[in-house]
Amino acid sequence: MIYFSPINKTYMSSKLDDISLSMGFTTKVIGDGRVIDNVLSYLRINQVIFKSLIVAEQIHSANVASFDSPMHREVELLPETDGIVTTEKGIAIAVRTADCIPIIYCDLKAGVIAASHNGWRGSLKNISSRVIDIMVERGASKENIVVAIGPGIGACCYDVQDERYYSFLEEFDNDFGAFSIRGGKRHLNLLKLNYEILKRIGIKTDNIDFFPFCTMCNKDLFFSYRRDYKKHPDRFGEMFSFIVRN
């Protein structure tokens, strides 16, 4: 279950509650996740134990980076990267979103964690499959991987062109029941899409947690690209989602 921690104003997954682990999906109350000082301040104020922070500089790709040794600097920004995998304790990994779906992955038994930024393009390129393949290469098991799907835009607000629908049919031979027609427009449920893709990859349904609310609808809690980027650029920012093994 995804639950809200009023102390640090962050959503967390009960499936990833463990003393050796820290993770969270932050809200706009924390500040703009594009500002690294906001991210570092949050981690320190909430006493998250970490030695280094790695943040993906996303481009809606299926590019995934992996780290299996200690970092030599406090902060590392990864250009052209939408997913991060690590086996190293003390490395906090983070992605930033504002309608796209953040996903956190963990095989605690194998000591492998990951995070990815899943917009429609990354989902179409099957970035989650790439992340999980790299995790398995580093000793994780699909049977043991637990996944938390964070806050993103809901089908209620996400109308898309028909071409997008046909792209998914061509790539997966399946629309995963994630597309619907509302008011004469085709809408995409990104959360359901990624949930179904994870199941198809081989992640057990009992090991998948997901967030039920829409970032565009909930303006007091979340930044939203569709809601604010063009109309209210002064209000726009991005949330960050992170995981670290202590």
TrEMBL record:
Pfam families: Cu-oxidase_4
Annotated keywords: Hydrolase, Metal-binding, Transferase, Zinc
Catalytic reaction annotation: adenosine + phosphate = alpha-D-ribose 1-phosphate + adenine; inosine + phosphate = alpha-D-ribose 1-phosphate + hypoxanthine; adenosine + H2O + H(+) = inosine + NH4(+); S-methyl-5'-thioadenosine + phosphate = 5-(methylsulfanyl)-alpha-D-ribose 1-phosphate + adenine
GO molecular function, one term: copper ion binding
Superkingdom, taxonomy of origin: Bacteria
SUPFAM superfamilies the record matches: CNF1/YfiH-like putative cysteine hydrolases
Transmembrane segments: none
Keyword Ligase: no
Family to which the UniProt record says this protein belongs: Belongs to the purine nucleoside phosphorylase YfiH/LACC1 family.
NCBIfam families per the UniProt record, alphabetical: peptidoglycan editing factor PgeF
UniProt protein name: Purine nucleoside phosphorylase
Organism, as annotated: Candidatus Roizmanbacteria bacterium RIFOXYD1_FULL_38_12
